[in-house]
Automatic annotation (TrEMBL):
Lineage: Bacteria, Bacillati, Bacillota, Bacilli, Lactobacillales
Annotated keywords: Cell membrane, Membrane, Transmembrane, Transmembrane helix, Transport
Ribonucleoprotein among keywords: no
Pfam families in alphabetical order: BPD_transp_1 (PF00528)
Transmembrane parts of this sequence: 9-30, 69-93, 105-126, 138-159, 238-259
Chief location of this protein within or outside the cell: membrane
Family per record: Belongs to the binding-protein-dependent transport system permease family.
Stretches assigned to the ABC transmembrane type-1 domain: 70-259
Claim: Cell membrane is one of the keywords in the record: yes
UniProt topology in membrane: Multi-pass membrane protein
Subcellular location per the Swiss-Prot or TrEMBL entry: Cell membrane
The name this protein goes by in its record: Carbohydrate ABC transporter permease
Cross-referenced InterPro entries: MetI-like (IPR000515), MetI-like_sf (IPR035906)
């Protein structure tokens, strides 16, 4: 019993330290967002501002066309997520239930692409999109991310956990593969699908490097790229940068806090609910 209590205590301590480590950057971001410019570079640094500078948020919002950036981020995130979920569901079903020539080889080939660093794909993707005159358009921000084999692999594992008897019974009743997919497979896998969708929303919303490369005007740029407005050759306005970072990241924090149970359930789930 003593060993069990010691183990539980150690676990609580480790989790508490981990939580503090994760929260410190967010606390520092909020603290800096409410400071004056001299306070942001003060040594030693201060955690609590002497006078809360709430106007930093208003100044940061008007320093760049953040409403346009917000709308762009919303459009790109929504379309990318819906598109990726659609392709993921179809591909996962094909690899899980359908039989076709080269199925296992093709799956292994796609699986091997997960070992390719994303940075290696930046130049080929950029050249391809430029050939189609898609640079500085929504297409450049959306098309490369309409498919993810990590998502396909994750959902395929969930589909594989669904008993084959359901599929065979549906076929005997005259159900088509399309009908079975959307009326049986998808509802039974909603936790995994929701988790994949949430991860894609967070990843698309926070994407910085790719939008920076393929956009050159404010009309199609997204929120993370807009944060560059506070950095120039003269230096960085840290208080405004942190204020802008706060309202950029706030929607994703809300999404994660509200739907975190689906992420955990979707990734850890290996079978049907009891």
């Amino acid at each position: 019993m003593t060993k069990k209590r010691i183990s539980q205590s150690l676990l609580i301590i480790i989790l508490t330290l981990g939580a503090i480590t994760m929260l410190v950057p967010f606390i520092w971001m909020l603290s800096t967002a409410l400071k004056t410019a001299p306070e942001t570079v003060k040594v030693p640094p201060t955690w609590i501002p002497k006078h809360l500078q709430w106007q930093n948020f208003v100044t940061a919002w008007h320093a760049a066309p953040f409403l346009t950036y917000f709308i762009n981020s919303l459009i790109v995130t929504t379309v990318t997520t819906i598109g990726q979920l659609f392709t993921t569901i179809l591909a996962a079903f094909a690899f899980s239930r359908l039989n076709f020539y080269g199925k296992h080889f093709l799956f292994a080939l796609f699986l091997s692409t997960m070992m390719v660093p994303g940075e290696m794909l930046i130049i080929p993707n950029f050249v391809t999109l430029s050939k189609f005159s898609l640079i500085n358009t929504y297409g450049a921000l959306i098309i490369p991310w309409l498919a993810s084999f990590f998502a396909v692999f994750t959902l395929r594992q969930t589909f594989n956990a669904i008993p084959n008897e359901l599929y065979y019974a549906a076929k005997l009743d005259g159900s088509s593969d399309w009908h079975f997919l959307w009326t049986m497979m998808v509802p039974l896998s909603k936790s995994a699908i929701t988790a994949i969708g949430i991860l894609e929303v967070i990843g698309s919303w926070n994407s910085f490097m790719w939008p920076l490369i393929v956009t050159n005007t404010a009309k199609v740029r997204t929120l993370p790229v807009g944060l560059n407005a506070f950095t120039s050759d003269a230096g960085t306005q840290f208080q405004l940068l942190m204020a802008a970072s706060t309202f950029v990241i706030l929607p994703m924090i809300i999404v994660y806090l509200c739907l975190q149970k689906y992420i955990i359930a979707g990734i850890s789930k290996s079978g049907l609910k009891g």
